[in-house]
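Translate sequence into structure tokens.
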Amino acid sequence: MLVVRNARQADLDAILALAQGIGPGMTTLKADRGVLARRLAIVEASFAGAARPADSDYLFVLEDTANARVCGVSAIKGMVGVDEPFYSYRLGTSVHANPQSNLVNRVQALYLSHDMSGSAELCSLYLHPDYRRGVNGKLLSKSRFLFMAQFPHLFPEKIFAEMRGYLTQGGVSPFWESLGRHFFQMDFQDADDLCGKGDRLFIEQLMPRLPLYTHLLGAAACDVIGRTHIDTIPARRMLEQEGLLFDGYVDIFDAGPVLQARVRDLRAVRDSALLPLAPAPGAVENGAAALVANTSMQAFRVAAMDVDASTGVARAPQEAGAALQCEPGGAIRVYFPQARSPAA
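Result follows.
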């Protein structure tokens, strides 16, 4: 069975191996042992309730329990941009008009913004290619929403996710080549690595503050503004299904779209429910595909299985108790991604 659980220090080698397979563009999960080790220390403190909101980092792993293999990761940063601004570009329109000649020119522009500062961030989502099938991706991504549904007090009002922007097959970012390279004097990968190691001060020092007219960047750069990396399209679809939307913000390096929502408006937060676990000895009749989670912050676990919630209890397969480390009758959180309510 595949189970999402809290990441811990013992997962360092497995997470490092996953990070080494990601490639460029994912700032929040770099293949650096030292950075990952320090992050896991913060992660353990976060799940223990010992980290301040500005430092909290809830990193989860997807484990194949049959062979104890970690095959995916995902995370929620509790609050970004507190100790230093979190920058993004906001797409807007600049209007230039001359009343005497009746000429009006509307020009798209990029405005440097730190509107996401103080928000929570969904990040670090990666599933090993061997496991990209069935509901595995959905389990890995959407398990984070069940954590937020169970512990809403840990998070601010708004949450967002930066999608990886478009890169060519050679790993080149047309947006970076047209804009960022001229101000940072380094390759896209080098700038991405600096951010991944926590060094964001250079952005504030080097990035232009004035609005940037997009038509001056060239067609190649304009074409990829708000465009998602091909490997990230499935992840974007899942986030949009949960209520996150693109509202004109893009990443400052590769112009990937930023999706955002209020935590209370997320589908899993609205539509999941706590029900007593009732393990069924055989097949679950009248069951529907669900994500189920326990209620333990320090040992949070999520699995995907058929559940029948029509009678006010969660009738689930016998292995549910072991997967969630929950005794029969104990409360579990149940979410039906394809329905509008747990009793539907």
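Note: The two ends are 25 Å apart (CA to CA).
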